């Protein structure tokens, strides 16, 4: 029986892609940069690549931000210059933050026992604590554990098992919900948890054996009840 749910944050609870798109459109326009689809796609690709280097331990959190700015602007920038540029971008980005509209509803259903909730994210604890607080969601979770504290990142099974330890539950009593099939659902499954893939796009890629695919959080209570 599932007694607890561990959650991903970005693009699961928090509309990261939507906020990033709005922020890039606004900030790039103000900076005189291109704002067409090609420019937005390039920013996403740069972000994905540099963030992957951060989760692999090749860059610090600040370092991946600086590299994203340097690659986008295609010029040499000091750390201070890159930090200043990214800081102004962050202000616009944070003004665009919102949770997905189905988040409140699912916690209305799942807030009661037997379900307990925690956060396991590949970001940093300070960033996610602040984000969840600003979104009015922090009180839903017993804890926030992130890769900077754990010393490992999803899909490493150790990340999932450490989060289960924080719950004091064996992995077979815990489900993980996230938007990435590879990092989230398959990673969780490999560690012995129930892997639930939140496929918000409904792209409908084939679903591996044992993985539960949902296209919105309203479907989650039914999956947990089995
Ligand atoms: Mg995510």
TrEMBL record:
| Source organism superkingdom | Bacteria
A Gene Ontology molecular function term for this protein is: hydrolase activity
Cofactor(s) this protein cannot do without = Mg(2+)
Q: Which UniProt keywords apply?
A: Hydrolase, Magnesium
Looking up InterPro entries in the UniProt record yields:
HAD-like_hydrolase, HAD-like_sf, HAD-SF_hydro_IA, HAD_sf
User: Which SUPFAM superfamilies does the entry mention?
Assistant: HAD-like (SSF56784)
* Pfam families linked to this entry: Hydrolase (PF00702)
NCBIfam families in alphabetical order: HAD-SF-IA-v1, HAD-SF-IA-v3
Q: Which PANTHER family match?
A: 5-AMINO-6-(5-PHOSPHO-D-RIBITYLAMINO)URACIL PHOSPHATASE YIGB (PTHR46470:SF4), N-ACYLNEURAMINATE-9-PHOSPHATASE (PTHR46470)
- Protein name as annotated: HAD family hydrolase
Q: Which organism is it from?
A: Actinocorallia aurantiaca
């Amino acid at each position: 029986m599932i007694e607890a749910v561990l959650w991903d944050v970005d693009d699961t609870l928090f509309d990261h892609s939507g906020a990033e798109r709005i922020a890039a459109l606004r900030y790039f326009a103000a900076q005189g940069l291109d704002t067409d689809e090609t420019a937005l796609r390039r920013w996403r690709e740069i972000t994905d690549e540099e963030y992957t280097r951060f989760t692999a331990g090749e860059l610090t959190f600040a370092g991946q931000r600086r590299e994203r700015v340097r690659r986008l602007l295609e010029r040499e920038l000091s750390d201070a210059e890159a930090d200043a540029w990214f800081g102004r971008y962050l202000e616009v980005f944070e003004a665009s933050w919102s949770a997905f509209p189905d988040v409140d509803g699912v916690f209305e259903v799942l807030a009661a026992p037997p379900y307990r909730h925690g956060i396991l994210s590949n970001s940093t604890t300070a960033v996610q604590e602040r984000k969840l607080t600003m979104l009015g969601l922090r009180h839903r979770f017993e804890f926030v554990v992130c890769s900077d504290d754990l010393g490992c990142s999803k899909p490493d099974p150790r990340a999932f098992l450490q989060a289960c330890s924080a719950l004091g539950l064996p992995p077979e009593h815990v489900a993980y919900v996230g938007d990435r099939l590879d990092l989230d659902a398959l990673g969780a499954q490999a560690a012995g948890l129930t892997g639930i893939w939140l496929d918000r796009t409904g792209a409908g890629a084939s679903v591996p054996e044992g993985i539960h695919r949902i296209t919105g959080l309203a479907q989650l209570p039914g999956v947990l009840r089995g």
